[in-house]
Structure formats: structure tokens, C-alpha cells
């Protein structure tokens, strides 16, 4: 299987390379932000929009899920948040004339970057059966087509309802309600590819699948371990929190195969001192081999157990279960194996241990570097073991901090976007709406692709996102999608998923976070939940991209009426007219949202959802205690001559949305087809810096996948490891290569060989 660089694209991929930087943000970031914003929005709209990001009366930044904090600066946004806003608030438009001029086959040849640059979609369009391009369609006809296809299915489980993580609480609640009234739990979401491993590990060990810390906790921690995360690019506002924690005396360990600029030094653009010198953040950098984290934490646990007085015995006795079995397993941890798995030295691990023992309040933060491996769930459980040993859950300044991705991915899950809903949630939903939700589990992302491939699923409906762009095994996934009878995308911007369609396809244009939303009941706002369980309102203030856009709640409500008709007793019209009516229902179904509307009115900054382990050291697990766990230590075994490839984000992208072709902190400009390789690994293969290679992934069943034409960049990554950008490398990730338990694609551990190839002709 081979992925081709898109042809017919005016953008040349010609990467230029300079040495990586050692500090993030500061002046270049501010200049870069304003330039991108003005290009997309013009000066007036730029000022008007950026001033409203993350303000109490403004909209939630559609960038990441990092919380805003109380002291909202006038400009509480970051470079990459501003890019996300500019991308959405752009003045460029994709109109029916655009679709008339560009057949779908041509769109399929374009790069994701080019597609995204065309602007906001303004009208609903239909690709008719046998047609070669999208045509304008009325909303009524679009919903009639959806109803026609859905009611023709032999079972509701032949339909898939995907959600990406920007969808508001209100839209998500309605979407899952519709799916369950229709009769299926097939609600795959981007979380399946993202923090599912965190949710799986945390639910089992502490009873709540979410992080247990607040911003205040970070500010007062003694030690913050940041493992498998690149906040300088992906959560830039987190750097301010780390800076503040450092100023209050915290120490920081970063665990990463790459030296990420943001973690080394942070130049806070909001302070004069920060702009000039910046703050050093990391005290100890552990340059770990990809996938070595479980072994590292297991050995640390053994060493803590062996240190007299290091275990918080009262906490372990009162609040935990499974200690004996865990201690026995940890006792087996082996130095030689750990050094091999991690590539670290004894001294480095010794220093990490000292810092762990010196800390009374430890927080571990992580993201995709821990969640996207075969053994991600046991890895995160091992992190929890360390925190439990020292009583670091439910203590101020301590806890688990999985740093979520999309701005409302956590809220979507809270609202019931889950293929394996808890029975209690369904009971409450059924009682409120007088429906009978299916109790059998639905399909997650990977299972959905398999279902399409095998003809078990026939209609695919996406509430946002870029399903075929974001999922693994591109060739397999695209072929699977093309088998669908109908594909529907509720979208703001064009992407690859609009070019890889079923027999018929619809694009339904929708309002984004920045857009003003007026319904029959007046001007509306929506709500979101951030990475730390704070719920707050988000209000767009820009005139929508065109008069034909519908909001996400309106689209769900109208679809529901078209599909369910008189069978549904749910007041869909009322919900569309006034989202407060939706919130009244959320208040009665979802624990923690009691008096939702009243509480929002009383606290404009938002309110925190309850979290039993954090608030009261109560652990709603099966044992009623926090669970220690003891899985065998795993780490990737890489055959001779091969490298372990991680697929990650550049500084100029938001997942599959490409803002530009630079990765400034890593010193790469003007191109994305690069592979970062340790100088000695390149040397051993006779590859000069600037050589071109094909990346060939080798899967255990003997199949190979190829991504051609990547420029080799000699880069200070851990030995034996390589890195290249997603989504260009998704073609290399086998559909069956997933994490145990969570079924998350193992996008951070792909065994590859490099085959020298001719430089692409310019
Ligand atoms: N600007 C911007 N912001 C974003 C996004 C974006 O694309 N652009 N995406 C959003 C989303 S949905 C998400 S989920 C988050 C993603 O945020 P991140 O998880 O920071 O994103 P990645 O680029 O995948 O980076 C993974 C990090 O883990 C490291 N890593 C890889 N493998 C390992 C390993 O085995 N062990 C350890 N210890 N480290 C490892 C990599 O070197 C890298 O630093 O960001 C969110 N915010
Ligand atoms: N190889 C590899 N693959 C990965 C990852 C990786 O690290 N490596 N990371 C995974 C992760 S963590 C994630 S979260 C997924 C992301 O998967 P997705 O969430 O599916 O992908 P995005 O690229 O974020 O989706 C972008 C599209 O969302 C639409 N959009 C933007 N805003 C809105 C809105 O407000 N409403 C609606 N309806 N649509 C909107 C636009 O049309 C835009 O083109 O990718 C995963 N895939
Ligand atoms: Mo994500």
C-alpha cells in the first residue's frame, strides 16, 4: 500500500532545515500569529475576534482543552489558539461555484493544506449517485435523503455517528440522544484515537476517567512530570502554568524522546521579562526511547518501595486495593531491562527517583506520547501506581493530569458520546425521554472502519472532524468509506473526508465557535468542559460565514424530526429554538449538572464538575478503592536495522488542518515530508542529512505499507527512534495495530525501515 504525495497541488513540499530552537513563544510567536490572522481575517476582524477569545463574555478557544484560569488577561490566547481562530474566522469562502468548478476526483488529488485554505463552506451540497461533483441542495432535501437512507437500513447498527471534539455539550447531548432514539450506540469519536487509553486506565484504577487536578493544583505542586507531551506547540497556555509553578518552587521532569523547545525554556509573551530571557522549565530531561515509559515507572515504583518511609502507608491502607500483588510485580523490575527499554542511564533514573522522593505533591501530565502505543493502558496504570504509592491522589497540588486535545472532547464524553455507555447513564436518559436505548455496545473508530470495510455498516455521519484524514491505514480506511451508501459531514471547512465519499455524499455547513448563533428563542450560547472538568459558556460574536449555515444543535434537531418523525416524543423544535431547554434536560440526566442554567447564570466563569477521588478521596471503582495494578512490563522490540517511528504534530497544524508548512521550534520550514532520525542511526544507514527515503512499515502479519519521499533530517531524538508528521504517515499505521483494552491506534509505535529514494523532482 502506497500513499502518494498529492499531485496537482500548487504547494511544493521542499523542506529547509536549520538547528532546532531551545525556547518557545516570545516575540516571533506574536508576529507570526498576527500575520496569519490578518491574512485570513483582515485587520478589523482580527482585533475584534482575538479580543474575545477565552473572555467571560466571549467564546471558548477552539484550539486545545487547556483551562483558562481565573485571571483572564485581555489577550488570553496563544499563538496556536490564534491560528485556530483565524482558520475558522477566515473571510475566504467555499461556495456552490467552487464545487461546480472542482469535481470530487480533483479534490481527492489536493493536499489537506490546499483544501483547508479554500475557506468556510457556505451552503449544503450533495454529491448525487453517479455524479462527479457536489451540487447545491436544500436543507429539506438533505434531511430527506438522510432519512431515506437511515430508514432503509436493516438494523440501526448499520449506521455510524462519529463526533470530533469541538462539538458543544448541547449539540453532543442531542446527537447521542438522536442516535439512541434511532437505536444504536455506534458513537465512535476522536477520543477513541486520543485519550481512550487514559480513560480506560483511570476508570479502572481511580474510578473516574478524567484528570484529578485543577490549575491551582499545578501552581502548588512540588514536582510536575510531563511525559509524552509537547505543550509548546499543542497546549501553549500550559507553559504559563508551568512557569508559575516553577516560580513557586516546583521542579519539572520531562520524559520525551525529543527535546521539545517549549519544555526547555518559555518566553512568556505576556510579561516583559519573559519576552527577553524566558524561564527555564525542565530540571531533568529524560530522553526516553519510544514506548519505554512503563518500564521507567515500574522501576521507579520498585525503588520507592525499597526506600524506607517513602510509601504513604496510611493512604495505601485506607484507600487502595491490590497493593501486595503490585508490590510483588514491581519487586521484579530489573535495571538491565529498564535501561534497555528506556535508553536512559542509571544516573538519570537515580536523579528522577531523588526528585520523586523529595516531592510531597506530585502531578503527572501526559498526552499522546503515552496513549498511542500497544501497551498504553498498562503504562498509564503504572503512572497511577506511582502516584498512589505516595498518596498523590486527592491531595492539593497532586494528581493525574491527562492533557486533553480538542477543546470539548472531554465534554462530549460527559454528554454521552461513547460507544460503551454506562448502564446508569442510559437508565437516566431513558427515564427522562421515555425511550428504550439499546444496551449492547456500539463500534469505536477502528471497529467502525472494519464494519464499513466488511459491509456491516452502510451510513456514515460525522459531526465535525476529518475521519478518513485522522484515522490509521489510509488506504484501507478510504476503500472502506467508499463502500458506504451515504456519507454525511457536518463541517466548517473542507478536508479529505469530503473527497472520499460513499455512493451519495452530503456536506452540511455549520457554525463554528466564533460565529454568532441566533435561533427562534433569541441569541444562543453553548457550553464546553475543559481538560480539568470546568464547565463554562461560549458565545460567538462574528456574523456567520453565510445565511445558509445551521448550528450543530439545529442540524441534529432537524435530522431527528426527518428520521424519527411522529415516533419521537422528544421536543426537537423546542431544543432548536432555545438551547436552555437542552441544558434543562442535561441537568436531569448527567450527574454534576444539577441546576445547570441557574449555575451558569450565577457564575459566568463556569463551575467545576465533581470528581470523587479529588474532592473526597472516594474511588468509585469495582472494589470501592483505588486499585494498584500489576501488568507484565512491555516495550516495543524493534528488529535489527529497523526504527520505531512516532507520528506527531508540527507547530503549524491542528490535527489534519494544516496552517502552514513550518515547524519553527524544530527548525523545519517549507515542507512536511520529513523524517527526524538520530545522527548515528542515519550514519549507520549511510543516509546523509538531506537524503530522501521511503518509509516502509512492517507489520507482524508480514504486510508492508509505504509512504514515499521523505527528507531525512538528522535530529537529536532518542536512539533507534524516528518521528514524522501525521496525517501524511497514517498510511503506515496498520488498522489492527491498536492499544490493548482501549483499541486506540498505536500511532506512536510504528516499526519502519528506511529505503533510499530519489529526491522528488522540483
Ligand atoms: N496547535 C495544536 N494544538 C493541538 C493539536 C494540534 O494538532 N495543534 N492537537 C490537539 C489534540 S487533538 C491533541 S490530542 C493534543 C496532542 O498533544 P501532544 O500529545 O503533545 O501531541 P503530539 O504532537 O502527538 O506529541 C506527542 C509528544 O509525545 C512524545 N512522545 C512520542 N512517543 C513517546 C513515548 O513513547 N514516550 C514519551 N514519554 N514521549 C513520547 C513526542 O516526542 C511528542 O513530544 O494537542 C491538542 N492541541
Ligand atoms: N497518525 C496519527 N493519527 C492520529 C493522531 C496522531 O497523533 N497520529 N492523533 C489522533 C488524535 S489525538 C485525534 S483527536 C484525531 C483528530 O481527528 P478529528 O477530530 O476527526 O480531526 P480534525 O483534523 O481535528 O478535524 C478537522 C475538521 O473539523 C471540522 N471542524 C472544525 N471546527 C468545527 C466545528 O466547530 N464544527 C464542525 N462540525 N466541524 C468543525 C473542519 O471541517 C476540519 O476540517 O486524530 C487522530 N489521528
Ligand atoms: Mo486528540
From TrEMBL:
Residue ranges occupied by any Molybdopterin dinucleotide-binding domain in the UniProt entry: 643-750
Molybdopterin oxidoreductase domain segment(s): 120-488
Family matches, as CDD domains: MopB_CT_ydeP, MopB_ydeP
One GO CC term on file: membrane
InterPro entries: Asp_de-COase-like_dom_sf, MopB_CT_YdeP, MoPterin_dinucl-bd_dom, Mopterin_OxRdtase, Mopterin_OxRdtse_a_bac, Prok_molybdopt-oxidoreductase, YdeP_MopB
Entry superkingdom: Bacteria
An MF annotation (GO) of this entry: formate dehydrogenase (NAD+) activity
Family label: Belongs to the prokaryotic molybdopterin-containing oxidoreductase family.
Designated name of the protein: Formate dehydrogenase
Source organism of the structure: Streptomyces termitum
